[in-house]
TrEMBL record:
<feature type="domain" description="Interferon-related developmental regulator N-terminal">
    <location>
        <begin position="38"/>
        <end position="266"/>
    </location>
</feature>
<dbReference type="InterPro" id="IPR011989">
    <property type="entry name" value="ARM-like"/>
</dbReference>
<protein>
    <recommendedName>
        <fullName>Interferon-related developmental regulator N-terminal domain-containing protein</fullName>
    </recommendedName>
</protein>
<dbReference type="InterPro" id="IPR016024">
    <property type="entry name" value="ARM-type_fold"/>
</dbReference>
<feature type="region of interest" description="Disordered">
    <location>
        <begin position="1"/>
        <end position="40"/>
    </location>
</feature>
<dbReference type="InterPro" id="IPR039777">
    <property type="entry name" value="IFRD"/>
</dbReference>
<dbReference type="Pfam" id="PF05004">
    <property type="entry name" value="IFRD"/>
</dbReference>
<comment type="similarity">
    <text>Belongs to the IFRD family.</text>
</comment>
<dbReference type="InterPro" id="IPR007701">
    <property type="entry name" value="Interferon-rel_develop_reg_N"/>
</dbReference>
Length: 353
């Protein structure tokens, strides 16, 4: 009997221990549920897209690059400076080893990243890393669209990240070597060359340099492709305009409207505006409003908050349901009643007469 009782006691103890462990597990899971599951934490979409660039499947990487291009072009990324090193390494890897579509998307993302960084050491570092890769791809890639994208990206990276204005001359030389390529590559290289010419000091350009490039541009103006002729015409106009105005101060065309202003010089800033507007597409207005680089380039003052804009509390105080609104309504009713009473008395007097 004692042994049976002992077995029964041990069985009861085991059952009790299992129940306690079950209760403890239930409580622990409940507490974890209150804290929230890790998957429920909102992740940065930018970081999620960067993670997809590590995938082996090219279609996944291309989808991620399209997402990055959309994010970078749609609005200004204020923290792009902090992400420059890791992001540029991934994008340059896509340019080196990716297919035609992947490399073109990566080049476009690099240019947009440079615009978001907006100058400083990070932009200089990006140009130093990207210049040899983009020059090689622009000159030797088999796909014309990829070469054109790399040429545009190289020009924008140099426009933003060159330590001095004269440092853009080697990049301009690399771009001018692409003018004899296909229509897509030539037009992109001409647009990029014009963008960099707009920031080069006029006194740094010799007459022989100008004559040499004007001769090359005249050849491009004789080509049959409309895009090439248009880009070459803009480049020639800027070069001639700068040549004739080297000793004169450029006139300024300032568009001012209440709270913001955009100042454009006669030719150079107009070309810069056209290229950046073409490159940023729908995101141009957002970048123009929030990106310090755009403010500096175009001498632009962003639209500020209107001074006469009412705050929520002020609107509540002036609403119809507020105490002030009800008091004002009572005053109006009293005034209307007084006027009606007065008019009624006057009509009575007239009737008596």
């Amino acid at each position: 009997m004692a042994k049976k009782k002992s077995r029964r006691a041990r069985s009861v103890e085991r059952d009790t221990d299992e129940e306690m462990r079950s209760v403890a597990s239930t409580c622990t899971l409940a507490n974890m549920g209150e804290l929230g599951e890790p998957d429920s934490i909102e992740e940065d979409p930018f970081e999620q897209l960067l993670d997809l660039l590590y995938e082996r499947r090219s279609s996944t990487r291309e989808k991620a690059l399209r997402g990055l291009v959309s994010l970078l072009s749609a609005r200004y990324q204020a923290d792009a400076d902090e992400r420059q090193s890791s992001v540029s390494d991934l994008l340059l890897g896509c340019v080196r080893r990716g297919g035609a579509t992947e490399a073109a998307l990566a080049a476009r993302a690099l240019a947009l990243l440079s615009i978001s960084i907006g100058g400083g050491e990070s932009a200089e570092s990006l140009l130093t890393e990207a210049q040899p890769v983009l020059e090689r791809a622009a000159a030797h890639h088999t796909a014309q669209a990829t070469r054109a994208a790399c040429a545009e990206a190289l020009a924008i990276a140099a426009f933003v990240g060159a330590e001095s204005q004269l440092d853009t001359l080697p990049v301009m030389s690399a771009l001018s070597s692409l003018w004899k390529g296909g229509a897509l590559v030539s037009a992109a290289a001409l647009r990029g060359w014009t963008l960099l010419l707009s920031v080069v000091p006029l006194h740094a350009l010799s007459d022989s340099w100008r004559e040499e490039h004007l001769a090359s541009l005249s050849t491009q103006l004789a080509r049959s492709e409309v895009d090439v002729r248009s880009a070459a015409g803009c480049a020639a106009a800027l070069l001639l305009d700068g040549w004739g105005m080297a000793e004169a101060e450029p006139e300024s065309d300032t568009d001012t409207e209440s709270e913001f202003s955009v100042s454009l010089s006669t030719t150079s800033n107009m070309d810069t505006l056209d290229l950046l507007r073409h490159f940023l597409a729908e995101g141009f207005q957002s970048h123009l409003q929030d990106n310090p680089l755009m403010h500096e380039v175009f001498n632009f003052t962003p639209r500020s908050m209107r001074l006469d804009k009412r705050y929520d509390t002020e609107r509540l105080e002036r609403g119809k349901a507020s105490a002030n609104g009800k008091r004002y309504a009572r005053q109006l009713r009293t005034a209307r009643n007084d006027v009606a009473s007065y008019c009624g008395k006057q009509h009575s007097l007239w009737d008596d007469e």
